[in-house]
């Protein structure tokens, strides 16, 4: 209560409010509000994982277990090469008899503690204590062997490759994919008395090298009680580079020093956005979400060089770090726009990385799911073009736009639009270019197009809508390049969503190759598993709103603002249509339901902001507050769906600040409802964006009035230009909906290219 009174005084006085309120709020540092366990138990599909890493660092680990409910961990990890999976190498400390050795121990564990920069755990039956701290491309483990009468061992396990142990050094590589290898160089601070190779269930003493599948080397010590430190570096280039990475980052065996450095790095990164006020739960949710936005993509430049799987060569990065492991279908919506706000240099490096992947690849297509092992071409559409367009129109231009345009154009026109495929364009694509939509099959009709994945299907409506948006982004880039004829062509293509709009139902409805709507049709359940015949992971109720680039036109198609609002309201109130177990048996990704809205899947993220297009911003304010408080919490089930490396979390970060980028590629932010009394965003240029929400509380969710940069503001949106050089956005909040604020016809947010 005393702190609240102090905060109210600061609000009223306005003297140094932002600085003082934030300072008063931080009894804890930002990193102390990160809970890596948040969401570790999944509502249905994949949980979050408690990652230990530095922001966008190449070296990431988390305990190797199914989820938080698992009572055992599978050894101790050394490197995770892709988001939520694909570990390489493994450590197993052990005390006991030689005859008990195995390649990897499954440990019962307890007293586990995970922070972004530090991990510690007790391995119960072994009576071992382990700790871990990472740097960017290296890390350190500490082990306490506590059994006084048993021999200590350390087992270094790999997959297919080569490992060698010489004295206190282990080095080698593991083959990953085609010509890709991960190299490791590791040192122990206590030289082992015995070394050997573990092969075919036996320890062969004094052998130094293990090769082939299931390679494994072992060290042991004569002292029963042992305190051991192990530091290592990893590389995609060579063992020698792995050693250089280690020596550059970790110069001794002091784990606490490495953890302290990691803590400082995390605090610096998380402090790019500072908040005051809100509830304790709000602060945990906010900073944990921001931490999750900083997992990927990962920087794999090593001393100015990187290994590219696209041409199997080592390249100079020419001063621009090389990033990979980015699921763009998930991250283009908000994770990339967030980085444009707080780390433009990194975002430039990422965009240049996309361009390099296309340049070095066989077909010169932009990636859509780049991973360490290459572009896996998952999901649908080619939203890398959105990332480039969004940066350019926000004035972040330090990349070759013409190259990006050519690669994006090729990826849309020369690669098939069939989901989950890297095949070249075929009949489906020619049909789309001629008719402006992807044709659908009737229920039971046999697939004849070879490019179509047997499980992922055509996703005909989702691909039509998503490609319409991609072509709008292409048009935006062509216009910036002065290619007026091409811009005009792609602007025309960007209306292709109209070809599937059913005027009688106001849904996007699949058509067959003859132009007929598929009938009969159920907007909840038609389309098979994940509705993939026509949509993608979500049903027609979600894709009803998938016109990010031209919502103004969608309002008109639906019959005007009033009907548009009724349709939006229905999305949040329409019942599932079946029991939950039947609904999720067919639509397992469609989680976090409020009616037919899915808070757990990325295509829904912009939907609650769509009320702003229909002169009802108070409904956006109400909905944003309720959705986040319903589905994002500081607990083990506090994330409603698959968190794809910032896909969902970036929605939370933006929305809790009070605004959201509904249309990447258009430099406009939609205003929602701020969760905090004060937010300070540190921009790349050294300026700050300050957001003040007077009277903000759990109940006071509605905007009563606003000011932007000192001027009265009655619009539920603002431009990137308004805040690019810093600024101040001020709200007065209340507990009753203000239906007047932001509701004028001239306050409607722009869409398409209405700004020009």
Structural summary, described in words:
This protein is α+β, with helices and mostly antiparallel strands and 756 residues long. It folds into two domains: 239 residues, Distorted Sandwich (Beta-galactosidase, Chain A, domain 5); 430 residues, GH92 mannosidase fold. Helix content is 28%, strand content 24%. The strands form nine sheets. The chain has a ten-stranded antiparallel beta sheet with strand order 1-4-5-6-7-16-11-10-9-14. It has a six-stranded antiparallel beta sheet with strand order 2-3-8-15-12-13, with no helix packed on it. The chain has a six-stranded mixed beta sheet with strand order 17-30-31-35-32-33, sandwiched between helices. A hairpin with a 2-residue loop joins strand 10 and strand 11. Helix 8 crosses helix 9, helix 9 packs antiparallel against helix 10 and helix 9 runs parallel beside helix 12. The protein is globular, with a radius of gyration of 27 Å. The two termini are 50 Å apart.
Summarize the structure.
The protein has about 750 residues and is α+β, with helices and mostly antiparallel strands. Helix content is about 30%, strand content about 25%. It folds into 2 domains: about 30-270, Beta-galactosidase, Chain A, domain 5, CATH 2.70.98.10; about 325-755, GH92 mannosidase domain (GH92 mannosidase fold, 2-Layer Sandwich).
Number of strands: 35
Mean pLDDT: 95
- Write down the CATH topology of the largest domain: GH92 mannosidase fold
Sheet of most strands: 10 strands, antiparallel
The gross shape turns out to be: globular
Rg on CA atoms, Å: 27 Å
Total count of helical runs of at least 4 residues: 20
CATH class of the largest domain: Alpha Beta
Counting helices, strands and paired strands, the structural category is alpha+beta
**What is the second-level CATH architecture of the largest domain?**
2-Layer Sandwich
Beta-strand proportion: 15-25%
| Cross-sheet strand order for the largest sheet | 1-4-5-6-7-16-11-10-9-14
Percent of residues in helices: 25-40%
Return residue spans where pLDDT drops below 50 for at least 5 consecutive residues: 1-15
What count of structural domains?
Answer: 2
Per CATH, the superfamily of the largest domain is: GH92 mannosidase domain
Q: Distance N terminus to C terminus?
A: 50 Å
């Amino acid at each position: 209560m005393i702190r609240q009174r102090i905060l109210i005084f600061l609000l009223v006085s306005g003297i140094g409010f932002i600085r003082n309120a934030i300072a008063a709020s931080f009894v804890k540092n930002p990193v102390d509000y990160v809970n890596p366990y948040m969401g570790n138990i999944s509502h249905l599909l994949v949980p979050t994982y408690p990652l230990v890493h530095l922001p966008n660092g190449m070296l990431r680990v988390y305990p190797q277990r199914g989820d938080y409910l698992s009572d055992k961990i599978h050894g101790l990890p050394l490197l995770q090469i892709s988001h939520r999976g694909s570990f390489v190498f493994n450590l197993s400390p052990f005390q006991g008899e030689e005859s008990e050795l195995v390649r990897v121990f499954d440990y019962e564990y307890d007293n586990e503690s995970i922070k972004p920069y530090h991990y510690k755990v007790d391995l119960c039956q072994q009576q071992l204590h382990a700790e871990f701290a990472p740097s960017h491309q290296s890390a350190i483990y500490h082990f306490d062997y506590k059994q006084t009468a048993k021999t200590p061992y350390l087992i270094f396990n790999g997959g297919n490759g080569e490992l060698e142990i010489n004295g206190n050094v282990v080095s080698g590589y593991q083959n990953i994919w085609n010509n890709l290898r991960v190299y490791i160089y590791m040192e122990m601070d206590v030289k082992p008395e015995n070394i050997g190779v573990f092969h075919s269930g036996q320890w062969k003493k004094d052998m130094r090298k293990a090769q082939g599948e299931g390679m494994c080397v072992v060290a042991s010590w004569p002292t029963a009680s042992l305190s051991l430190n192990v530091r290592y570096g990893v590389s995609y280039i060579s063992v020698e580079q792995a050693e250089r990475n280690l020596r550059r980052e970790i110069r001794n065996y002091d784990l606490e020093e490495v953890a302290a450095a990691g803590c400082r790095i995390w605090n610096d990164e998380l402090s790019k956005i500072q908040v005051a006020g809100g509830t304790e739960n709000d602060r945990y949710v906010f900073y944990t979400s921001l931490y999750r936005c900083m997992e990927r993509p990962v920087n794999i430049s090593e001393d100015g060089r990187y290994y590219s799987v696209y041409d199997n060569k080592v390249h100079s990065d020419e001063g621009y770090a090389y990033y990979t492991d980015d699921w763009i279908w998930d991250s283009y919506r908000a994770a990339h726009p967030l980085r444009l706000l707080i780390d433009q240099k990194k975002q430039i490096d990422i965009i240049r990385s996309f361009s390099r992947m296309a340049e070095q690849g066989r077909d010169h297509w932009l990636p859509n799911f780049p991973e360490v092992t290459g572009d896996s071409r998952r999901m649908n559409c080619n939203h890398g073009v959105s990332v480039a367009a969004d940066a350019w129109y926000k004035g972040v231009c330090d990349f070759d736009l013409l190259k990006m345009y050519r690669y994006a154009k090729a990826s849309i026109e020369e690669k098939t639009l069939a989901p989950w495929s890297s095949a070249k364009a075929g009949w489906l694509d020619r049909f789309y270019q001629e008719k402006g939509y992807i044709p659908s099959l009737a229920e039971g009709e046999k697939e004849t197009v070879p490019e179509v994945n047997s499980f992922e299907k055509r996703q005909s409506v989702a691909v039509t809508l998503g490609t319409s948006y991609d072509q709008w982004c292409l048009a935006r880039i062509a216009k910036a390049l002065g290619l007026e004829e091409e811009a005009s062509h792609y602007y025309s293509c960007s209306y292709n969503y109209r070809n599937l709009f059913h005027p009688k139902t106001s849904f996007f409805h699949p058509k067959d190759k003859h132009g007929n709507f598929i009938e009969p049709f159920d907007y909840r359940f038609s389309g098979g598993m994940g509705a993939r015949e026509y949509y993608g992971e979500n049903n027609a109720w979600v894709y009803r709103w998938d016109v990010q680039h031209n919502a103004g036109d969608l309002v008109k198609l639906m019959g005007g603002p009033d009907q548009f609002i009724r349709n939006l309201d229905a999305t949040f109130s329409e019942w599932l249509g079946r029991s939950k177990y039947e609904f999720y048996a067919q639509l397992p990704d469609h989680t976090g339901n409020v009616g037919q809205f899915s808070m757990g899947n990325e295509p829904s993220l912009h939907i609650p902001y769509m009320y702003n297009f229909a002169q009802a911003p108070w409904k956006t304010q109400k909905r944003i507050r309720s959705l986040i408080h319903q589905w994002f919490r500081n607990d083990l089930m506090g994330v409603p769906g698959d968190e794809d490396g910032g896909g969902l979390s970036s929605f939370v970060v933006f929305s809790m600040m009070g605004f959201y980028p509904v249309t990447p590629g258009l430099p406009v932010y939609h205003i929602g409802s701020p969760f905090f009394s004060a937010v300070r965003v540190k921009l790349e240029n050294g300026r700050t964006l300050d957001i003040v929400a007077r009277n903000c509380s759990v109940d006071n969710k509605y905007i009563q009035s606003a000011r932007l940069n000192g001027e009265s503001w009655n619009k539920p949106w603002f431009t990137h230009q308004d805040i690019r050089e810093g600024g101040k956005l001020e709200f007065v909040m209340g507990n009753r909906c203000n239906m007047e604020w932001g509701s004028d016809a001239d306050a409607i947010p722009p869409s398409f290219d209405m700004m020009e």
